[in-house]
Amino acid sequence: MRNAGISQATLERLADADAFRSLGLDRRKALWEVSALQDRPIGLFEGQTNTDPAEGQISLPLMTEAEHVVHDYASTALSLKAHPLSFVREQLSLLNIRSAKELDDVKDGASVKVSGLVLVRQRPGTAGGVCFITIEDETGFSNLVIFQGLFEKYRREILGAKLLMVEGKLQREGSVTHVIVRQCFDLTKLLQANKTQHTNKLPLQTLSRADERSPFPVKNKRAQIRNNIQEEMFPKARNFK
C-alpha cells in the first residue's frame, strides 16, 4: 500500500471502514499495512527499503463476520454485511421472540414478543403521553405503542435499551401493524457477543447519537481520538420530545 499524499489518519479511517476490500485487503490486513507506513524511511534514508523478511511470514487471523459488523457500525454507523441481531437470532427464538417479518403471519389481537435495535422514540405533544417506538431487526421494522402509564413503569428500559424486547398485543389496521406494549425488557447485553476488545492502538471512531454532531472536534489529533472512544458500539436512538 502506497501513500498517495493522503494523511496517515485518513488512511487509518478508510482502513477501519473496510474501504480497501476492493483492493484485496480486508480490514485487519489494511490496518496492518497502513500502520507500516509510519516506519517508511525518511530524510537521509528516504528511498531505501525497510522491508523486514519476517513480515512476509506473518499470517493475520481472519475476522469473523460478527467482528466485521461491529467495526462497520463503529466506523460508518451501518453494515452491508449483516445485521447485529442475525447473530443472536437463535437465542431470541429460544425466548419465543418473533422477527419483524414473522409478525405478518400473526393474527390481529394475538400476544407476541418482538425485539430489535431502537431507532426512534417519539412522544408527540398531541398524543396524550403515548410513546411511539420503531425497532429494527435483520428482517425489517416493528412499530410499538406504549401508553403513558406503562411508559412511566418501564422508563428505564424504554429510554436506556439499545436492544429492546417487548411483549404485547398485535394490532393490525389495514396495512399498518403495530404492537400495543404490555411489558418491556432491556436485552442490550445480548449484543455483547458481537463486541470485541480493541487492543490495537489505531483510532476507531465510534457511533454518536443520531441527533447529535460528530463527537470529534475538527482538529482531530490521534491521541484525542483515542481518549474519546466510547465504550458502546451501537448508537442510541433518535428521540423526539
Structure explained in plain terms:
A hairpin with a 2-residue loop joins strand 2 (131-137) and strand 3 (140-146). The chain has a 5-stranded mixed barrel with strand order 1-2-3-5-4. With 241 residues, it is of the alpha/beta class. The chain has helices spanning 8-16, 27-36, 65-76, 89-94, 148-153, 155-160, 222-227; strands spanning 111-122, 131-137, 140-146, 163-173, 176-186, 238-240. Residues 196-231 have low confidence and may be disordered.
Summary keywords:
alpha/beta, 6 strands, 7 helices, five-stranded mixed β-barrel, about 240 residues
Mean pLDDT score:
76
Radius of gyration: 22 Å
Structural class: alpha/beta
The fraction of residues in strands falls at 15-25%
Task: Give the SSE order as H and E letters.
Answer: HHHHEEEHHEEHE
Indicate the low-confidence ranges by residue numbers. Answer: 196-231
Euclidean distance between termini CA atoms: 48 Å
Number of helices: 7
Shape: elongated
**Quaternary structure state of the chains depicted:** single chain
The main β sheet shows up as: 5 strands, mixed, barrel
Give the neighbour order of strands across the main sheet: 1-2-3-5-4
The proportion of residues forming helix, as a percent range, comes to 10-25%
Query: How many strand segments?
Result: 6
